[in-house]
Amino acid sequence: MVAYAQPLIDETDGSQEQLNKAFGIAQLCWNLALAPENDREKDISNMQKTLKMDKAEFADFRRSVIDPMILRHQEMFPNMPRFDSQAAAPPPREKKYPGTGRNAPCPCKSGKKYKRCCGK
User: Fold this and answer.
1) pLDDT recorded at residue 90
2) Is the whole model's pTM more than 0.85, yes or no?
3) How far is CA 60 from CA 41, 109, 115, in A?
4) Which residues pair with 113 in a beta bridge?
């Protein structure tokens, strides 16, 4: 993460406050880079409201920080799987003992937790 955030870190004065801000922005851009493009645009639009920037100020911020950091992520981690909002969720697995909590003792009387026994 530090290597990814390095361009933003280099722009700080080294204070803890600015370093935290740089890492926060890097983390945000990291997450945006993993999001599907149609969701990414919606999230970026919401950012403008959250950051309370006018359109021109936010457009400059996006052009100079957000878009380059998303591109940097894609260049540094080309094989990292992206989130896919269209992907179907895997079908739920049937429980051997429905209604049993993960951390409850296994109903098969093995003495193990359900998650370590029949819940696998």
Assistant:
1) 62
2) no
3) 16, 63, 50
4) 105
Smallest CA-to-CA distance from 71 within 2, 4, 1, 3 is with 4
- Provide DSSP, the chain: -HHHHHHHHHTS-S-HHHHHHHHHHHHHHHHHHHS-HHHHHHHHHHHHHHHT--HHHHHHHIIIIIHHHHHHHHHH-TTSPPP-TTSPPPPPPPPSSTT--TTSBPTTSSSSBGGGTTT-
* Alpha carbons within 13 A on the beta-carbon side of 80: 16
| Confidence (pLDDT) at 10 | 95
- Under a CB-based contact definition with an 8 Å cutoff, are residues 34 and 82 in contact? yes
List the one residue out of 20, 3, 14, 27 whose CA is nearest residue 75: 3
HSE value, Cβ hemisphere, 13 Å, CA-based, for 46: 7
